[in-house]
Design a protein that fits this description.
By secondary structure, the protein is mainly alpha-helical. The chain has eight helices and no strands.
Length: about 170
């Protein structure tokens, strides 16, 4: 972790300090995974042109992303800001112990990339949402900016590989 990473984290986190974070928490929860499943199933059921291939590509991508994510977390073992920094409390309880890479961000960028590939008119919306998911993880105090960047790169990489194989 660099001083710049920590400084940027604190600068962003201060935007939510002592504030109601209901909206940021809600935004972050849209990256928990349920929405991806619902989108995939709806497209599979009701969109005959690309829906089935979209679902299969997303399932394969998440099947690849999850083990890589777990290996990276265990390899880096980077403590979360709320566990490392003194006198600091996150707005939410993290889902696991380590912070690098951000799994929410990886999954969001993976989904955004697959959406953009199959449905280009929604690319800006999908990528903007993925960026906001990453930002929300910093604002909530559970990730450093470099965790989010690493998560985005992981999601983009796995999505690209999956699209080369199936898409």
């Amino acid at each position: 972790m660099t001083k710049a990473d920590t400084d940027l984290f604190f600068w962003l986190y201060r935007l939510t300090q002592k504030r109601n974070c209901t909206g940021v928490i809600w935004l972050s929860k849209t990256g928990d995974g349920y929405l991806y499943f619902i989108i995939g199933m709806l497209l599979w059921a009701f969109e005959p042109e690309h829906g089935e291939l979209f679902l299969y590509t997303a399932l394969m991508a998440y099947g690849l992303e999850l083990p890589v994510y777990v290996v990276l977390k265990r390899m880096f073992k980077r403590p979360r800001p709320c566990d490392l920094l003194n006198n600091f409390t996150a707005h939410v309880t993290p889902s696991d112990k380590f912070s690098l890479p951000s799994g929410h961000t990886a999954a969001a960028w993976l989904m955004a990339s697959i959406v953009a590939h199959f449905y280009p008119p929604f690319a800006i919306l999908a990528y903007s949402w993925a960026a906001l998911i990453g930002l929300s993880r910093i604002l909530l105090g559970v990730h450093y900016p470099t965790d989010v960047i690493a998560g985005a790169l992981l999601g983009l990489t796995i999505a690209s590989a999956s699209l080369m194989i199936l898409g």
